[in-house]
Amino acid sequence: MTHDEPQGGAVEGAARALRGSFDGDVHLPGDAEYDTVRLPWNLRNDPRPAIVAEATGPRDVQTAVRVAREHGLPFAVQATGHGTLVPADGGLLLKTARMAAVEVDAERRTARAATGALWSDVLAAAAPHGLAPVSGSPFVGVTGYTLGGGVGWLSREYGFAADSLLRAEVVTADGETLVADAEQNPDLFWAMRGGSGNFGVATSLEFRLHPVGDVYAGISLYPLQAAPETLALYREWALEEPDEINTALTLMQLPDGPPIPEPMRGQRLLAIRVFSTLSAEETGQRLKPLLGAAGQPIVPGFAVMDFTQASDVVAGPPPPPLVARQHIDLFEEMPDGLLDTVNDAINPDATSPLNAIEVRHWGGAMARPGPGAGPVGHRDVPFTVISTAMYPPSADRERIESYVDDLVTRTAPYATGGTFLNFLGDPARAETAFTAENYARLREVKATWDPGNLFHLNHNIPPA
Ligand SMILES: Cc1cc2nc3c(=O)[nH]c(=O)nc-3n(C[C@H](O)[C@H](O)[C@H](O)COP(=O)(O)OP(=O)(O)OC[C@H]3O[C@@H](n4cnc5c(N)ncnc54)[C@H](O)[C@@H]3O)c2cc1C
């Protein structure tokens, strides 16, 4: 029997076992809340789990893993559903959102986040101490983001979020609870820093915080027509950026309704996003050529602000649950043909269904892994292009998907062929997120910790 083929009676047996020993709520099809709790944020799938269990603590996580395994049910774990790409149909879906406690140790500059915490929870706990995590969008889950690598606005200064991970408490596929860190179970610790949810269910993560006070940050909006010249400059200018400055150029199409203010609704624009831990003056000096190419902003947006506010401003308002198609490619350089494709992707005559196409300079500390760093990413790649289409389930999915497919075909000849797990919309391409050497090692570690591939409803890495 594979994990995807529960035998008759397995679901009933699993539900009975859970109801006897699980502290959180358990929902079955037909129960009042089932249709709410089964849905991820990303409505790309319409999953029909046999059981949805809402964990309240590590013991619940352990119980759920043991029950799924003993009853042969497919198993999946979810905090927010921003990265849920494979539906847990007929399986046991473990939801972790209720486990959201965050503790900060200001002296050691560390935080410990329970598995369902969001970055906004960590920001709120760390900010009073003048500390900040390598967070990205505040509304995504700490665990999924970090285990998938995690690239945020401090990444050029402090590396991937996975590089700041110090310790994970984990329930393994055989239902045991253990610690993975540099001393205890180091192979598991290595694999979890980029290999995502393949190796166990984390019940908490402990990670480094960094001393960050106010930052100079924000989004300035320019006419879309400024994009070609600004992008052409960016590909050279960005390579000279100091690590303290993180930037991205986004061609975007604003939603045609709330929360976007009236005059901006539906507009197609160039957005420059800046997040700098240098002073406003020094950052301003550095940005001068780039902003000169962009010209007069329609809405200027850079200012000194605290880290939490900057994180909110740069991420934009949390989008409601939508169908999301994201695609990322990595680039050694940005030749004219690639920039032409990017410039055409959001066209002024409004036929593009994309919300955004973002060119972002990576590098800095991301490209300088410390000794024993995890398998995250292709570290030496300077540029990424991320295309995002987010739309309601009622939209013309076929047209949108074929638009993105076509765009991907046109950018692919310039790309390295590698990818980054957190923005990889196609789980079948998980292998391309790693170097060949790291992927082979990940498969070995998987064979040690999850030889039966219990944790496979994800960016799956099959056991060697
Ligand atoms: C609008 C938007 C903005 C984003 N911004 C960023 C960004 O700034 N930077 C960035 O790097 N990424 C970003 N992402 C990608 C995001 O980090 C991934 O989608 C990540 O997987 C989300 O984690 P989650 O817990 O919120 O999602 P979930 O869908 O709940 O989880 C995703 C996957 O993470 C794994 N996982 C979750 N919890 C556990 C656990 N307890 N133990 C083991 N594995 C677990 C599982 O494999 C699960 O399928 C963004 C995505 C979206 C849609």
Describe the structure.
The protein is 28% helix and 22% strand. The chain is of the alpha+beta class and 464 residues long. It has three domains: 10-95, Uridine Diphospho-n-acetylenolpyruvylglucosamine Reductase, domain 2, CATH 3.30.43.10; 102-211 and 436-449, Uridine Diphospho-n-acetylenolpyruvylglucosamine Reductase, domain 3 (2-Layer Sandwich), CATH 3.30.465; 215-428, Vanillyl-alcohol Oxidase, Chain A, domain 3. A hairpin with a 4-residue loop joins strand 5 and strand 6. Helix 1 packs antiparallel against helix 3 (58-70). The structure holds flavin-adenine dinucleotide. Residues 40, 77-84, 96, 115, 136-137, 140-141, 143-145, 147-148, 150-152, 196-197, 201-202, 319, 324, 422-423, 458 line the site of flavin-adenine dinucleotide.
Q: Could you say what the CATH architecture of the largest domain is?
A: 3-Layer(aba) Sandwich
Biggest sheet details: 7 strands, antiparallel
Radius of gyration: 22 Å
Structural class, judged by helices and strands? alpha+beta
| Poorly predicted spans | none
Strand numbers in spatial order across the main sheet:
15-12-14-13-17-18-16
Approximate shape: globular
Which oligomeric state applies? Answer: single chain
What's the tally of helices? 13
User: How many beta-strand elements?
Assistant: 18
Count of separate structural domains:
3
Bound molecules: flavin-adenine dinucleotide
The percentage helix is 25-40%
CATH fold-level assignment of the largest domain: Vanillyl-alcohol Oxidase, Chain A, domain 3
What top-tier CATH class of the largest domain fits best?
Answer: Alpha Beta
